[in-house]
Amino acid sequence: MIGISIATNWEFEAALDYFIIKDNERFRYPYGEYFFRNVNGSELLFYCTGVRKVNGVGGCQYMISTFNLAKIIVVGTCAGIDDTFRNLDIVVPNKAVQYDCTVKEVEPLIKQSFIVDIDLSIYGNQFLTGTIGTADKAVVMWKDYLELKKNAITIADTEAAAIAYCCKKNDVECIIIKGISDFPTDERDGDKFESNAQQINVYLENTPKVMNKIFKEYVDRFI
Ligand SMILES: Nc1ncnc2c1ncn2[C@@H]1O[C@H](CCC(=O)c2cccc(C(=O)O)c2)[C@@H](O)[C@H]1O
Question: What region holds the Nucleoside phosphorylase domain (predicted)?
Answer without folding.
Answer: 2-211
